[in-house]
Design goal:
heterodimer, A: about 400 residues, Fumarate Reductase Iron-sulfur Protein, Chain B, domain 2, 4-stranded parallel β-sheet, about 50% helix, B: about 425 residues, FAD/NAD(P)-binding domain, Rossmann fold, 2 domains, 7-stranded mixed β-sheet
Chain lengths: ~400, ~425
């Protein structure tokens, strides 16, 4: 990226620790603190250490407990980018310390998926391999929670599926950012998104030059690599912005990374500018609705949905657009789970030493789901859905799938 | 466009009450919040008026309101709305399993974490100190091993002064099994108390108190930090019945467990009524048409979103929460509607260097003045916007900290604004 203009120091997340009043709101709302008594909590780790502006060579080791769920950021009345300060300090730590073996695997899902997809029958063998590996305890010995199933690869990537779709052409276009999970594991969600956008008169563009958003890299401390991803993705987003075409994501962690976390982590002006062109899928539909342009020709669904709002959607400050869009769905009833963080937080719950904490955090949501007797559990975040399935046997889906089905 | 009958800005006590009272009237309500609000940081007891302008203790808050200066928020709210707001609040709290004790014409004294007594008007049963003090002869102060900011010995010293030397005092330390990691907080202990293991272990340890071994059990009073469960008052009832006598919680340093119980109760009630709550969105401006506000502009992670409404209730707080700022001296600003802000003029009147003296702080009175409908007025008393109502700490003309009136003003103004 050519333009490296930095955001004004006063506005930069890395210096936001100075706004901390030590009020403890972040501690009161931290799900990890509630589950793990060894975590000293967001206040002490992020702003207190962050105040040193990373000049001192000391590390608060309990920083390792932070899952980057961003509950602290939401709780803070003073605009401290608490979790981002944690992630920046984590990256500093790993500059001088070796990573656990499993970090490499958990951070580089995209790289692995690309390798697997490059081989003939690669996904079939990889899925088989993961099953065997799991039963032989290989993941466990690497430091990955053996209790969990690794997400299986789809036989075709979303990009392959996308090429088969015959879209009606339109002047109105959006660029879809599928993210790794949809591209490699759940392409049907991307297909549903295309259907919904087409039904609303939009043509969907897939830009294969996008990388993984970088979220798994950031949380495992591979910040330099994440920065490279950010530069590439920001350049692409700005390219589309210049043509007046917004970038839309269906994964609420991808969209938060593209629209906000790049800017917070790396402080470049271009990232802020790019963020303005990124939307969550339901946010975009809600904007159409606000202008009276949302297609409400929807078939009745007559279902009760229990909606788990992902933490990263709450952090986006856009409310719950799924709820307002579903009001147009005849017969649909949406109830909020309102049971806090699911505990998975991206790859956090996959870490062997964090598995128990992750499941403890999820308890409230699990019992809420078990007691709710909803027809379907809906949630935009792929790792929240994995956690819900693991903790309850429910089979949650993305709300865009429900909407796509209703556009008959 | 996103349109509601009422948009409430601010998720503190005033904002939550304004949203709830509006929704109960059948209005469609959108609540915009940024940060966790005040309830994590306050005890959730309702102080109405603890001290007058000269720092004399107020015995009858309802009567004392008559003598307040004309610019004081209570003078605009009026005692009728205050009384109605209390009825409204206590009904909601009772229905949601946190019954409150109290009355507007007398003070209740609640014990603090250092053993002094603090005047308030309404408190949940678990905190209603002076309701249970009479007749108690033996006081057991319950400390928690590893708990920050709760010191039994200091409590004994101060409680002796307030409750009398004629009583016996015992300090008992409860072991929770939570130690060994970080310093524990009242919230950690309250979560442990949510479990059967916690309540059972806690009550067993209390039953070992020496004070219980002789004489009437009901002569004994247990004073505990705010640890009796994170929701409702079931845990408080269980513990009281298991030890066979009264148990009273103290106020404490944040995070405040009782504040969070109240917060959870109010948010559950809002959800039940279908209020749209939008978190983590800072409202940065408004669109106006003459003397009407038409929309507020809220910041998302990377964009701005407009919320249209017929009526707006401003509950963004004062200096601490950024509802009012003052970048340049004597140039205070209200950040959303750019309302006129009242302040005490003259540098010499701005602050009182004696922090704990019997004089208020000039700066604390900074805020927005309103007419009797709680709509903002300018220096000449002329209303500036017709559909914006100002509540809670956004209001000027009072020092809530000095006079102990924070939650009282918040509740009564929020309720009145919702009813207008």
């Amino acid at each position: 990226m050519s333009d490296k203009t930095m955001i004004d120091e006063e506005e930069r997340a890395i210096y936001s620790g100075d706004h901390c009043l030590s009020c403890t709101s972040c501690m009161a709302n931290c799900p990890v603190m509630a589950a793990a008594k060894d975590y000293r909590g967001p206040k002490l780790v992020a702003p207190a250490h962050g105040r040193m502006h990373f000049s001192e060579d000391d590390t608060e080791l309990s920083l390792d407990f932070c899952s980057n769920c961003k509950s602290c950021d939401r709780a803070c009345p003073s605009g401290v980018a608490v979790s981002t300060l944690n992630m920046l300090q984590r990256a500093e730590y790993y500059k001088k310390h070796p990573h656990p073996q499993r970090d490499d695997m958990l951070a580089h899902a995209e790289k692995m998926a690309k390798l697997v997809n490059a081989l003939p029958l690669g996904t079939t063998f990889a899925n088989l391999g993961m099953k065997i590996g799991r039963s032989l305890g290989m993941f466990d010995s690497m430091g990955i929670a053996g209790e969990r199933e690794m997400p299986a690869y789809a036989s075709n990537t979303f990009a392959q599926e996308f090429r088969k779709i015959k879209q009606p052409s339109s002047d109105k276009k959006v660029v879809f950012f599928p993210g790794c999970s949809i591209n490699y594991n759940e392409p049907h969600i991307g297909v549903a998104f295309v259907k919904v956008m087409n039904a609303n008169g939009y043509e969907v563009i897939l830009d294969e030059a996008f990388n993984c958003c970088g979220s798994p890299l950031v949380v495992t401390g591979y910040l330099d690599e994440a920065h490279e991803h950010a530069e590439n993705n920001v350049e692409r987003i700005l390219y589309w912005k210049r043509q007046g075409i917004p970038v839309v994501a269906t994964c609420t962690s991808c969209s938060l990374m593209l629209r906000k976390e790049y800017e917070e982590l790396f402080g470049e002006e271009a990232m802020k500018e790019a963020g303005e062109n990124v939307y969550d899928a339901f946010e975009f539909l809600e904007m159409l609705d606000a202008e009276g342009k949302f297609n409400t020709k929807l078939a009745p669904v007559n279902e009760k949905f229990l909606y788990h709002v992902p933490c990263h959607l709450k952090a986006a400050g856009i409310g719950t657009p799924v709820v307002s869009i579903f009001r147009h769905l005849p017969g649909a009833k949406v109830e909020l789970a309102d049971a806090g963080c699911c505990g998975m937080s991206g790859n956090y719950g996959f870490k062997k030493d964090k598995y128990e904490i992750s499941m403890k955090i999820g308890e409230k949501l699990f019992s809420r789901i078990k007691a709710a007797h909803a027809d379907d559990v809906i949630c935009e975040c792929p790792t929240c859905r994995m956690q819900i399935q693991h903790g309850t046997q429910a089979e949650p889906c993305h709300p865009i799938e429900i909407l796509a089905k209703a556009y008959q | 466009m996103i349109r509601s009958d009422v948009v409430v800005i601010g998720g503190g006590f005033a904002g939550l009450i304004a949203a709830l009272a509006s929704a109960k009237r059948g209005k469609s309500v959108t609540l915009l919040t940024y940060g966790e609000g005040t309830l994590t940081l306050n005890s959730g007891v309702i102080d109405v008026l603890g001290f007058d302008e000269n720092h004399n203790a107020v015995e009858n808050p309802l009567a004392a309101i008559e003598n307040l200066p004309a610019d004081h928020p209570y003078k605009k709210i009026g005692t009728k709305a205050l009384e109605e707001s209390i009825d409204f609040f206590t009904a909601v709290a009772r229905k949601n399993h946190i019954p409150y004790h109290g009355s507007l014409d007398r003070q209740m004294m609640v014990p603090t974490a250092v053993g002094t007594l603090k005047p308030t008007c309404f408190a949940p049963h678990s905190l209603s100190g002076s309701e249970v003090f009479p007749g108690k002869k033996r006081i057991v102060i319950v400390g928690i091993k590893g708990l920050k900011d709760f010191y039994g010995d200091i409590m004994v010293e101060n409680l002796k002064k307030s409750l009398g030397e004629d009583k016996s005092y015992e300090v008992l330390e409860v072991e929770t099994g939570l130690t060994g990691g970080r310093d524990i907080t009242t919230q950690d202990v309250a979560r442990w108390m949510d479990t059967d293991e916690g309540t059972s272990s806690f009550s067993k340890q209390l039953l070992k108190a020496e004070s219980l071994q002789n004489g009437n059990t009901t002569d004994v009073l247990f004073v505990v930090p705010q640890v009796l469960g994170t929701k409702g008052h079931a845990c408080y009832q269980t513990i009281s019945s298991r030890v066979g006598t009264d148990v009273v919680e103290t106020t404490c340093l944040p995070p405040s467990v009782n504040g969070m119980r109240l917060q959870a109760l109010l948010i559950d009630s809002l959800r039940e009524l279908g209020v749209d709550i939008v978190e983590n969105t800072k409202v940065v401006g408004a669109e106006k048409d003459g003397t009407q506000a038409t929309a507020v502009i809220a910041q998302t992670a990377s964009n701005q979103k407009r919320y249209y409404a017929k009526k707006f209730i401003l509950a963004t707080g004062g200096f601490y929460s950024g509802g009012i700022t003052m970048r340049d001296f004597e140039q205070p600003k209200e950040m959303i509607f750019d309302l006129p802000v009242y302040f005490v003029k003259g540098e010499e009147n701005w602050s009182n260097k004696e922090l704990f003296s019997n004089k208020p702080q000039g700066f604390a009175k900074t805020g927005i003045l309103t007419d009797e409908t709680l709509r903002p007025v300018d220096e000449s008393g002329k209303r500036v916007l017709d559909n914006v109502y100002v509540v809670g700490r956004n209001l000027g003309g009072y020092d809530f900290c000095f006079e102990h009136s924070g939650n009282g003003v918040a509740l009564a103004s929020a309720y009145k604004a919702a009813m207008m």
